Amino acid sequence: MQESFKEMIKELKVFFAPETMYFNQDLQFVKTRMVVTEEKLAPLLAILDKFYKAPFKPAGEKPAREMGDLEVVQALNGVRKEQTLYLNTNDPEYVYFAAIWPWQSDPTQASLFLGLHFGGFLTPVRKALMENVKKDLEAVV
Questions:
Q1: What is the pLDDT of residues 78-88, one digit of tens each?
Q2: DSSP label at 26?
Q3: CA angle 120-121-127, nearest 5°?
Q4: Contact, 100 vs 112, CB < 8 A?
Q5: 32 C-beta neighbours (distance < 10 Å), count
Q6: Fold (CATH) for 2-140
Q7: Where along the chain do its domains lie?
Q8: Which of 13, 92, 134, 136 is the most buried (most CB within 10 A)?
Q9: Using CA atoms, how far apart are residues 4 and 51, in angstroms rounded to an integer?
Q10: pLDDT tens per residue, range 56-82
Q11: With a cut of 70, which residues of the chain have pLDDT below it?
């Protein structure tokens, strides 16, 4: 899974200037944020669809109530109707995610969040995986 995530990151790299990226990490969550302009949205969605297959929660659909119980959704501070959420949950211990959050102040822009979320405690194996994902994300900058 990590190799295909790396490939997706490499494909995304051509779309984003380094000054549009931000990085955050805590004990269960590693993510990067990129600013997406309207003209880059269609190519971005094509890349995300290739990795994630389809959105878990497409834009325009009201989120299901139980979606709020997911740890990754809580870590992203919830999901709204206009937002898109992709999840790859092939492993029960962690979730690769991509989230597209349109800006309310400027509808021609959105934030793209990419990363990895763990449930439970940070074990040495999880910490090593998180460090590898962090390196993959930082390589985009």
A1: 999 999 999 98
A2: -
A3: 120
A4: yes
A5: 23
A6: TBP-like (3.30.2030)
A7: 2-140
A8: 136
A9: 7
A10: 999 999 998 888 888 788 888 899 999
A11: 1-2, 15-30, 92, 120-122, 140-141
Q: What is the pLDDT of residue 18?
A: 47
Q: Which long-range contacts (CB under 8 A, 24 or more apart) does 122-125 make?
A: 122/27, 122/28
Q: How many CA atoms lie within 13 A of 92 on its CB side?
A: 0
How open is the CA angle 76-78-79, to the nearest 5 degrees? 105
Q: Which residue has the tokens 């040495």?
A: 124
How far is 14 from 31, CA to CA, in rounded Å? 18
Q: Report the distance separating Cα 11 and Cα 71, nearest Å.
A: 27
For residue 125 the two structure tokens come to 């194996």
Residue that has been written with the tokens 């992203």 in this structure: 76
The residue length of the chain stands at 141
Specify the DSSP element, H or E, that contains 95: strand 94-102
Question: Given its phi and psi angles, is residue 114 left (phi above 0), alpha (psi -120 to 50 degrees) or beta?
Answer: beta
